[in-house]
Amino acid sequence: MQRTLLTLAEPNRFNIVELLKKGPKSVGDIVQALGISQPHVSRHLRILSEVGIVSSRREAQLRIYSLEAGPFQELDEWFDSFSVLWEERFDQFETYMLDYKKKEEL
């Protein structure tokens, strides 16, 4: 999971992932959409592939990239682990505000 977060922290890789959320794309499509050079896109896609964030398939002479669900499911589970903490804090805040309101009414 840490590798996924570190990989996505790089703005161009994050932008590639955002673009691939809309569906599979070729390297050329990504280059055109993001306005960065083909070698840079290929390098970022290689890194995203190594981490397991994207996969590719061949279609004639094109390589088509798409997102892999696994790393994002892992991130989702990690973020969900914080929900208990936030719920407890909101409950504490609600208790505080109710106590405050009662004091104000006195």
Automatic annotation (TrEMBL):
Source organism, top-level taxon: Bacteria
Cross-referenced InterPro entries: ArsR-like_HTH, HTH_ArsR_DNA-bd_dom, HTH_MetalResp_TranReg, WH-like_DNA-bd_sf, WH_DNA-bd_sf
One family name in Pfam for this protein: HTH_5
Residue span(s) of domain HTH arsR-type: 1-87
Gene Ontology molecular function terms on file: DNA binding; DNA-binding transcription factor activity
Keywords: DNA-binding, Transcription, Transcription regulation
Gene3D superfamilies registered for this protein in UniProt: Winged helix-like DNA-binding domain superfamily/Winged helix DNA-binding domain (1.10.10.10)
NCBIfam families found in the cross-reference section: HTH_metalloreg
Protein name: ArsR family transcriptional regulator
Organism: Paenibacillus solani
